[in-house]
Design brief:
heterodimer; A: mainly alpha; 2 helices; rod-shaped; B: alpha+beta; seven-stranded mixed β-sheet; 9 helices
């Protein structure tokens, strides 16, 4: 189980950050307009 | 009532972010270890630059980036066509998040040890690379894709001089023989002893560029060597090879320094 969580940990962190930034951008929190 | 509203308000963003997370993670894994990974980094930097230009209202730069983008897409598709083809072919057959357990890896080392000793006694050259953290996909592409279970017999068969796959290196990834007949980059070091032939140079070259562990059997002398980070260590017998391989694969987990290599 530990292996599953820590394997490619950096990739998981980076992809989570990218996902959150994308979501915020699309939903107008970062871009200043809503779709 | 407020709690229910809150739950209904939050489930959509959570689901969306989770799906996006999974997609981004897969995209990164898809590109990792290939030439295209550098490109992916470049794209992320450009997207950030694009956002900054937009925020600062630098219209000329913004215009340039937008106009060039269409051209880039076509360029990228042409330049990275081999990577894209290989990646798409692999998409359906990947082991999701799979890392072999230690016992399984150790059993593989025993098989590799037996094969290597047998090849060494017959003076048959061999070049076997174990993938660790950095991906070897680029090199897998250069060979023949196998994806078969590791066994001493398979390895010996591959390196028999009359086998069509004997030329080049064999790659073991996640506990499986993933490809054979792969081309490894040759080291350009000028301080290497003259006794090192192409096989050793390829092993050194690969370990200079990646963190792979490579086992080499010399065709000339039957000598077994273990190559890590560009350093060659002579191996006396099967037990020593298995011990060193175990240590090298444990090292990544515990971050212990390796005394002999």
């Amino acid at each position: 189980m530990k292996n599953f969580l820590t394997y490619n940990l950096w990739f998981k962190i980076i992809s989570l950050l990218l996902a959150i930034v994308t979501w915020l951008y699309v939903n107008g929190e970062l871009s200043g307009h809503n779709f | 009532m407020q709690t229910i509203d809150f739950i209904f308000g939050i489930w959509k963003p959570v689901v969306e972010i989770c799906i996006l997370w999974f997609v981004f993670y897969r995209v990164i894994l898809f590109f990792e270890g290939t030439r295209a990974f550098q490109l992916l980094k470049g794209i992320v930097i450009l997207v950030l630059a694009f956002y900054v230009f937009q925020k600062l209202q630098l219209n000329t730069l913004n215009w340039l980036l937008t106009k060039l983008f269409a051209i880039w897409v076509i360029g990228i598709l042409i330049i990275f066509q081999p990577e894209l083809r290989y990646g798409l072919a692999r998409l359906g057959q990947q082991h999701l998040f799979y890392v072999p357990p230690e016992e399984e890896l150790f059993a593989i080392f025993k098989d590799v040890g037996s094969a290597v000793v047998s090849l060494s006694s017959k003076k048959i050259g061999a070049l076997i690379a174990f993938e660790r953290e950095s991906g070897l996909k680029t090199y897998v592409e250069s060979g023949v894709y196998l994806d078969t279970a590791v066994s001493a017999e398979i390895i010996e068969t591959i390196f028999i001089p009359t086998s069509p796959l004997h030329d080049g290196g064999l790659i073991i990834q996640a506990g499986r023989v993933i490809a054979a007949s792969c081309l490894f980059p040759l080291s350009h070091r000028s301080d290497l002893p003259i006794k090192f032939g192409m096989r050793h140079r390829a092993a050194i070259g690969l370990t200079e560029e990646t963190d792979a562990v490579v086992v080499v059997v010399s065709e000339e002398t039957g000598r077994i060597s273990l190559v890590v980070e560009g350093e060659v260590k002579a191996i006396a017998d099967k037990e020593e090879l298995i011990k060193d391989l175990k240590r090298l694969f444990k090292k990544k987990k515990t971050d212990e320094e390796l005394p002999n290599l």
